[in-house]
Amino acid sequence: MVELSGVSLSYADKSKGKVSALRRIDARFEEGNFYAIIGPSGCGKTSLLKIIAALISPSEGNVSAGTRELNGIRAQTSVIFQDYGLLPWKTVRANAELPLRIKGRITHDGRQKVQALLAEFGLDSFAACYPSQLSGGMKQRLAIVRSLASSPELLLMDEPFSSLDSLTREDAQDFLLSVRHEHRLTIIMITHSIEEAVYLADAVYVMNGVNPGSITERITISRDENAPRASFRGDPRFHEYCGVLRQACRPLSRKGD
Predict the structure, then answer these.
(1) For position 95, which CATH number holds?
(2) What distance in Å separates the CA atoms of residue 116 and residue 74, rounded to the nearest whole number?
(3) Is 250 helix (H, G, I), strand (E, B) or coil?
(4) Which of 29, 48, 57, 84 is deepest in the core (most CB within 10 A)?
C-alpha cells in the first residue's frame, strides 16, 4: 500500500537554523495490515505520519502508494490526530459529514452513508449533540466515523487513545480491530504504549533519535489468529514481544549497557 525510500525531512527554525527532523526512513506498509510506530517524544513520529498522508513533503526520498506517487495517496487516506480534530461548533452529524462537504459530495446517498455509520458506531441518537456533550470514547468513535465517511483504504492514527482511561482504552482497541475487519482497512498508528502496539499491530516500527529521528527496527508480531484477540494479553508471547520492544526502544547510546 505505501512504501518509503530514503525519506528525510529538514526545516528552518528561527532560533536553531536548519533542523533535521527525519533521516533516511525506509519502510513498507502492505495492504490489509495493521502497523504501529513507536518511539520517544521528539523522534519525528507525527512528522512521518504527515508525510505518509501527503500533508507535508519530504526534503529527500520518495513516498509511493502502489504505482501512484505522493499526491496520489490523498484520495485514499484519512487521518485521525491526537485531539480528534472535531469542530466544537458543529453537531455530531455535521462533523461526520465534513469530509463529504469539503469534497462537494453532500448528496442523499452521502447523508445516508453517514447516517448508517453513526448507527453502526452507536452515535445515531447523538446526531444533534455537540462534541462537548460526548464522552472521550464517543469522540474517538465520531472521529473514526468522519474518517470512514470518505471511504478510505488507508487510515492513519496519531495517538488516538491517549486521552482515554485504561478500561475505555482496551474497549476502544477491540472496537478498532472490529472496524478494521468490517471495513477492510490498512492502518498505521502512532502510539507510546508498547502493550498497545503489541496487542494491535501485525508489525511494529521502532523509531529512535531526536533531530533527526530514524527507524531502527521492524518487529513482526506473530499470534494465533484462531484464538480470541483478547486472550493474547495473557499469552507468554505477548510479554515476550513487550520485552523485545522495550529493549528496542532504549536510546541507542544505552544499548549494550
Answers:
(1) 3.40.50.300
(2) 24
(3) coil
(4) 48
